[in-house]
């Protein structure tokens, strides 16, 4: 028998090493996913490969019994079992059943109105990464008994570590047990679990059905992506127009009207494999086998191309017990399990009756005649008809138990479920995913509409399918011409629909519930994260919505401001981080506002030239690509908007632009990076900032991206920052290295779309949240954000020719950073007895920030730089700060923060106390 990993192994050099039973348990397929090339396809999980329900359920039961033996009955009775969505929801249930004494909860990617979140975590390599924990009983996870975590495979350990870390902070306990069908850790990962256990001071055991590892050659991700692309190109050249229709494997068709496609769309005159068809018009599709001819010796017949289902789906009333949860999304107790066991025989009998129902005589007499909707389509008169019980994404346990009950009643049953994971299908015995059905999501998912899949269903010779969904997913999209039921009916003679009522805990009366039917959703590009969409103006910021999307959360209603002196004391004493509170927004005097407008008028041309130069440099270094601008909020955001405007005005390029938070000492917002990686190629991302001072943020970004890549496995982000001005010689891509006045540095939110500096505080920003910021709507009367942008953009035409010359010269010169500014800062820190480079802020922009937000000690001004320092001198005068004229500065000025502050009114918890 051919191993179902052979096709991938031969082409990518992937090796499966370990216990001798591994090849029988696991096959290989290729993901259509930028984060991981291969997919281990379990033959006993019941997700991608239809399997006998007793085998799937028994695998979990055996693991649960092993856990009970490990813990002992007393500890088992105190345990809680947690399974992972979507693939391990039924496996976790089965482990809990084997344990016998413990309640069960599985993570979910479906938010439920009115149900409070008890936690969440990230599964970095997954197609859809974000998990929620929504127990009905908030105390379910709060006990101190063992926590048993169940997943289908234990590979790197990242998912488990993310889960335990997130939960241990809230609900610490002494013992964890990790359960998996297979332990596939590499040698490098073997010690991580023990090290982590020692770090948190808890015992962590591992129980697995089999062990081994996958040996991946260098460059496997790129090779896998190239192989997927080649297969898809082959399908396209063979006539595949879309993936709306099912692919059907050799031996697929059993009825006269079986449809055929090469790849996904029906193709006339497809050749059939030997033994494939039972009727003259049967036809077969094979994604992965380009062209219409599939196998030598195939019987060739013209393919009928029906556009309507061959079977009329039949809905039955299952008689699901009232109040019984449909699964573990909100918790499933041993008492619930007892209730389900008692009800299973009767529910299985209702399904069996539907499968035995009499046929529609008209349909039997004339296959072209429409079926009577009141009568089911008959199951062919086989001695033992093959039945598939098909679950729905996270709804795996209820269909599995219905399948076991049917099997126990003597039926020939297989079980699998639909999934949101995109996998390449290849019609080859040595490949684990032979066929796929493609259909739109039908449960109005929180992460948006997109494709869903059923693998190895079409072409598997099933006489009937029992499609089991919950009531939330029983929508018009399910019943649509391109929906799941129609896809199934095109390939399987009988389709029975079973709807299990979605269990929703009682919610307060003011919280709206989800209706049983929702508007049909249209197909759209899939999204792989449950993180929210970017905030946009005018709801958040005064910028136009197309100018920038803010990957932030809105904290406008939270009081975060503290007096400047109190913040400084707390920051310098270590009592609080600067990002845990906000300074009181500086309201400029009339004289200062006049200085801003004068400076804008005089410097707009110079700024436009720098904007053009940095934008053209970015475009020149990425020929043929469409950069994604990601500005570092908030100083970088006006620059990002201007760069976008330049690209649109000069090249008719509409560049995406987002703003993200980066915090010195805390790194860049990892959730924002996840969102970007889910929606764009990381290689296209260009980070943008206003200017460099000593280069601290440049180094911060490089370190943060290195850590992100190591922990998340997401590669491709370039740590290089493109800036308007680089007086410290810290970056390669810049508009100028002169230290001149950028008017957007003169003000705070009123020149930055009315958005505050970003906030990162643990009681406001959870592990699954974007960093926060405030929208100062009340300052709209003083907002000059649009004035700044429009004044600079108005000069684009007059500087275009100069920019072309500047860019040619820049591209021909060595732009390697010298870090001259950092060296100057270190020297100044020592000469003035500060001994902390973080208190030395070089450049016009950073000096202005010192005067607006911090407690300034003195200002060092480069002799002869008066033209750019009028506003600095005015602010220094208003705050009583001395300005010292010096020679030899690489900057126009340097701001020194007062180095002698002690702990103030802002405490270690980051809560600001505003002086009365």
TrEMBL record:
Keywords: Glycosyltransferase, Transferase. It comes from the Bacteria. Residues 541-792 form the Cysteine protease StiP N-terminal domain. Pfam families: PELOTA_1, PRTase_2, StiP, TRSP. Residues 819-898 form the PELOTA RNA-binding domain. Residues 359-380 are annotated as: Disordered. CDD domains: PRTases_typeI. One of its GO terms (molecular function) is glycosyltransferase activity. Residues 359-371 have a biased composition (Low complexity). Residues 25-212 form the Orotate phosphoribosyltransferase-like domain. Residues 326-486 form the TRSP domain. SUPFAM superfamilies: PRTase-like. This is Phosphoribosyltransferase. The lineage of its organism: Bacteria, Bacillati, Actinomycetota, Actinomycetes, Kitasatosporales.
């Amino acid at each position: 028998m051919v191993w179902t990993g052979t096709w991938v192994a031969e082409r990518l050099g992937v090796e499966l090493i370990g216990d001798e039973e591994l090849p029988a348990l696991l096959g290989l397929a290729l993901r259509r996913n930028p984060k991981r090339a291969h997919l281990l396809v379990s033959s006993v999980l019941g997700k991608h490969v239809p399997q006998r329900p007793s085998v799937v359920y028994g695998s979990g039961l055996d693991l649960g019994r092993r856990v009970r033996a490990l813990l002992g009955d007393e500890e088992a009775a105190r345990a809680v079992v947690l399974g992972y969505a979507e693939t391990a929801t039924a496996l976790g249930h089965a482990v809990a059943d084997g344990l016998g004494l413990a309640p069960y909860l599985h993570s979910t990617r479906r938010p439920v109105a009115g149900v409070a979140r008890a936690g969440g975590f990230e599964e970095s390599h997954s197609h859809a990464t974000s998990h929620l924990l929504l127990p009905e009983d908030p105390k379910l996870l709060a006990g101190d008994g063992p926590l048993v975590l169940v997943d289908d495979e234990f590979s790197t350990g990242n998912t488990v570590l993310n889960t335990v870390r997130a939960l241990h902070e809230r609900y610490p306990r002494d013992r964890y047990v990790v359960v998996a069908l297979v332990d596939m850790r590499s040698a490098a990962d073997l010690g991580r679990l023990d090290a982590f256990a020692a770090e948190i001071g808890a015992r962590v055991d591992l129980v697995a059905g089999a062990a081994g590892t996958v040996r991946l050659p260098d460059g496997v991700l790129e090779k896998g992506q190239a192989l997927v692309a080649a297969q898809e190109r082959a399908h396209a050249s063979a006539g595949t127009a879309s993936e709306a229709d099912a692919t059907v494997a050799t031996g697929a068709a059993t009825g006269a009207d079986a449809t055929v496609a090469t790849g996904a769309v029906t193709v006339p005159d497809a050749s059939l494999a030997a033994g494939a068809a039972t009727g003259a018009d049967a036809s077969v599709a094979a994604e992965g086998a380009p062209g219409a001819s599939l196998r030598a010796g195939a019987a060739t017949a013209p393919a009928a191309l029906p556009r309507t289902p061959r079977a009329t789906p039949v809905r039955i009333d299952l008689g699901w017990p009232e109040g019984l949860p449909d699964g573990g999304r909100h918790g499933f107790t041993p008492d619930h399990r007892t209730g389900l066991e008692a009800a299973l025989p009767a529910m299985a009998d209702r399904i069996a009756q539907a499968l035995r129902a009499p046929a529609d005589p008209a349909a039997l007499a004339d296959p072209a005649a429409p079926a009577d909707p009141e009568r089911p389509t008959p199951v062919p008169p086989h001695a033992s008809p093959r039945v598939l019980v098909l679950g729905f994404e996270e709804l795996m346990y209820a269909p599995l138990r219905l399948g076991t009950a049917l099997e126990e009643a003597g039926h020939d049953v297989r079980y699998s479920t639909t999934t949101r994971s995109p996998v390449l299908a290849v019609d080859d015995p040595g490949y684990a995913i032979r066929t796929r059905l493609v259909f739109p999501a039908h449960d109005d998912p929180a992460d948006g509409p997109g494709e869903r899949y059923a693998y190895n269903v079409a072409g598997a010779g099933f006489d009937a399918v029992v499609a089991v969904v919950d009531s939330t997913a029983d929508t018009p999209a399910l019943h649509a011409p391109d929906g799941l039921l129609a896809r199934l009916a095109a390939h399987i003679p009988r389709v029975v629909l079973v709807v299990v009522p979605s269990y929703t805990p009682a919610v307060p009366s003011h919280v709206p519930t989800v209706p049983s039917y929702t508007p049909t959703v249209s197909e759209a590009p899939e999204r792989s994260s449950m993180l929210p969409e970017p905030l946009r103006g005018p709801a958040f910021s005064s910028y136009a919505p197309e100018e920038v999307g803010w990957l932030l959360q809105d904290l406008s209603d939270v009081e975060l401001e503290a007096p400047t002196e109190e913040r400084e004391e707390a920051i310098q004493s270590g009592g609080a981080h600067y990002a845990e509170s906000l300074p009181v927004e500086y309201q400029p005097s009339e004289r200062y506002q006049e200085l801003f407008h004068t400076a804008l008028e005089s410097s707009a041309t110079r700024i436009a030239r720098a904007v053009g130069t940095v934008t053209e440099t970015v475009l020149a270094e990425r020929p043929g690509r469409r950069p994604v601008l990601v500005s570092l909020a908030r100083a970088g955001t006006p620059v990002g908007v201007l760069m976008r405007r330049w690209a649109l005005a000069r090249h008719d390029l509409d560049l995406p632009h987002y703003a993200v938070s980066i915090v010195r000492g805390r790194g860049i917002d990892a959730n924002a990076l996840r969102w970007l990686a889910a929606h764009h190629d990381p290689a296209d991302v260009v980070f943008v900032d206003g200017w460099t001072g000593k280069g601290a943020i440049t180094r911060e970004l490089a370190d943060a991206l290195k850590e992100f890549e190591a922990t998340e496995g997401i590669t491709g982000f370039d740590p290089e920052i493109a800036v308007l001005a680089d007086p410290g010689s810290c970056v390669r891509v810049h508009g100028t290295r002169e230290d001149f006045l950028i008017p957007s540095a003169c003000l705070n939110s009123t020149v930055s779309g009315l958005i505050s500096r970003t906030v990162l505080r643990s009681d406001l920003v959870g592990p699954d949240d974007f960093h926060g910021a405030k929208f100062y709507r009340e300052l709209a009367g003083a907002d000059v954000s649009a004035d700044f942008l429009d004044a600079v953009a108005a000069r684009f035409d007059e500087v275009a020719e100069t920019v072309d010359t500047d860019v040619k010269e820049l591209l021909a010169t060595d732009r390697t950073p010298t870090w001259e500014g950092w060296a100057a800062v270190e020297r100044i820190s020592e000469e003035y007895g500060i001994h902390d480079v973080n208190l030395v802020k070089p450049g016009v922009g950073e000096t202005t920030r010192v005067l607006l937000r911090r407690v300034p000690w003195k200002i060092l001004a480069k002799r002869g730089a008066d033209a750019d320092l009028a506003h600095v001198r005015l602010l220094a005068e208003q705050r009583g700060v001395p300005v010292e004229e010096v020679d030899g500065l690489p900057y126009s000025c340097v701001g020194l923060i007062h180095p002698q502050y002690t702990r103030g009114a802002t405490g270690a918890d980051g809560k600001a106390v505003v002086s009365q």
